[in-house]
Design a protein that fits this description.
By secondary structure, the protein is an alpha/beta fold. It contains 15 helices and eleven strands. It has helices at residues 4-16, 33-39, 88-95, 138-145, 162-168, 202-212, 230-239, 263-278, 294-309, 327-338, 341-354, 360-382, 406-410, 417-422, 450-468, and strands spanning 26-29, 57-61, 99-104, 151-156, 171-174, 194-199, 249-253, 282-286, 387-391, 426-434, 437-444. It starts with a helix and ends in a 16-residue tail after the last helix. It binds glutamine (GLN). Residues 110-113, 136, 155-160, 188, 302, 413 line the site of glutamine.
Length: 484
């Protein structure tokens, strides 16, 4: 294996200006990438070790531990921090032949929807650099959209892969809770967190997920459920022709198409639903009545868990320390300097909702409503709906600096946080553009229903590509064995 793919990624990163002064996508590059790519050659002919990503450069969000690069979570409190171990997803990518190329910018500790909350400055959207790429996996979405890498990993707690995918015009998948190991993913809200995949095409996303999915003894919440060949499923669906979705029931939840929905989003999603119908699917109107509670519930549960998970960053074990006379003063100074305003807000909010006297009113009640949101999904799927189709976001990418009110920022997650709360898988697929800005459509499936979700997504991608003449091609097509 030559290091040519790595050199091409480096050249592309330079050409688009992916560094700090430009789009600010990359936080660190793997200095060993070329050497690692070259070393892959040695045993590449060993057929007993299939390596579907042989030589493919990949990017990882900066909250996924690697041995080659720092893991800072976009935070000052972890500036320069190097993990003593690597995340299971990073190891699995390498085992599949991928080369870890770079880490990508993100909202600090994955809290945000625009990548403006990074301690290392905002990432710019490659489609329109005056706009945000979405977040919190904005750097990973931008790395794929800018053509630097074909596949990048992000993380999801409440939409952080799907929303940036939608804003940047790429594919983003959030797997079922438990589908992918969280070992080595820095915890934000442990009952919601999941590693996700960003890619140019549904097929590449399917392949990426197939590589990282599956039980991991190092993560007790990873599930012992067989991993289908998602890439093969996607490929067959895209090539089927005719009416490949005949017999598939696609639910259209009315709560996800409110009056105020952006017109461009409404039109592109309507066109996508028409395409699904032409592919043979039955479109059925359904209701998920507790959808309105998703944002309030999410913004209680996620900060509560975050306030506990982030307690470990106190200047003792991780990252730089601000020295002071006493231990408590040292904690105080390190955390005050180390955490940015959004992370501080979440920790305060989380500590408050967990405090004695308020626990029942907030946290316990939020957990009860979360169960109702999950039950909404269970009910529609039990009633014969195979997948749901919705917009991914209420509008397209907004200008950098345009959203300063935290609550307005939180509303970006209105259509995505529900899948995290319920634990079900969901994917965002480009469905067109409005005013030159990409729009994503979301397909949500039942627990461990990723195969069906990929099939519908791949068929839709192929149909829309044919409609607009912007064929869905351009993926690495690694599943087809075309990587050289
Ligand atoms: N935007 C949401 C938040 O700020 C979701 C973040 C995520 O999924 N990591 O919490």
């Amino acid at each position: 294996m030559s290091a040519q793919s790595v050199r091409a990624a480096r050249a592309r990163a330079a050409a688009v200006g992916a560094g700090r002064e430009g789009l600010n996508i990359i936080l660190a590059e793997n200095p060993e990438a070329e050497r690692e790519a070259e070393a892959l050659g040695a045993d590449s002919r060993d057929a007993s070790r299939p390596r579907p990503l042989l030589g493919v450069p990949v990017a990882l969000k900066d909250n996924i531990a690697t041995l080659q690069m720092p893991t800072t979570c976009g935070s000052r409190i972890l500036a320069g921090y190097r993990s003593p171990y690597e995340a299971t997803v990073a190891r699995r990518l390498r085992d599949a032949g991928a080369v870890l190329f770079c880490t990508t910018n993100m909202d600090e500790f994955a809290m945000g929807s625009s990548t403006e909350h990074s301690a290392y400055g905002p990432t710019r959207n490659p489609v329109d650099p005056t706009r945000v790429p979405g977040g919190s996996s904005g750097g990973s979405a931008a790395a794929v959209a800018a053509g630097i890498v074909p596949i990048a990993l992000g993380s999801e707690t409440g939409g952080s892969v799907r929303q940036p995918a939608s804003f940047c015009g790429v594919v983003g998948v959030k797997p079922t809770y438990g589908r992918v190991s969280r070992f080595g993913l820095v915890a934000f809200a442990s009952s919601l967190d999941q590693v996700g995949v960003l890619a140019r095409t549904v097929g590449d996303a399917a392949l990426g997920l197939r590589v990282i999915a599956g039980r991991d003894p190092l993560d007790a919440t990873s599930a012992e459920v067989p991993v289908p060949d998602y890439a093969d499923v996607a490929r067959r669906a895209a090539r089927a022709g005719g009416r490949p979705l005949a017999g598939t029931v696609v639910g259209r939840p009315r709560e996800y198409f409110p009056e105020q929905l952006h017109t461009g989003v409404r039109e592109r999603c309507a066109a996508a639903l028409d395409a699904l119908r032409r592919l043979g699917a039955e479109i059925r109107d359904v209701s998920l009545p507790h959808t309105d509670y998703a944002i309030p519930v999410y913004y209680i549960v996620a900060p509560a868990e975050a306030s506990s998970n982030l307690a470990r960053f106190d200047g003792v074990r991780y990252g730089p320390r601000v020295p002071r006379e006493s231990l408590v003063e040292m904690y105080d100074a390190t955390r005050s300097v180390g955490f940015g305003p959004e992370v501080t807000r979440r920790i305060l909010l989380g500590t408050y909702v967990l405090s004695a006297g308020y626990y029942d009113a907030y946290y316990r009640r939020a957990q009860a409503v979360r169960a109702l949101i999950a039950a909404d999904f269970r009910r529609v799927f039990a009633d014969g709906v195979d997948v749901l189709f919705t917009p991914t976001t209420p509008g397209p990418a907004f200008p950098i600096g345009a959203v300063s009110d935290p609550y307005e920022m939180y509303l970006n997650d209105i259509f995505t946080a529900t899948a995290n709360l319920a634990g079900v898988p969901a994917i965002s697929v480009p469905v067109g553009a409005t005013g030159g800005l990409p729009i994503g459509g979301q397909i949500i499936a039942p627990h461990f229903g990723e195969a069906r979700m990929f099939a519908v997504a791949a068929a839709l991608e192929a149909a829309l590509g044919a409609d607009t003449g912007t064929a869905a091609g351009g993926g690495i097509g690694v599943g087809a064995g075309t990587v050289s």
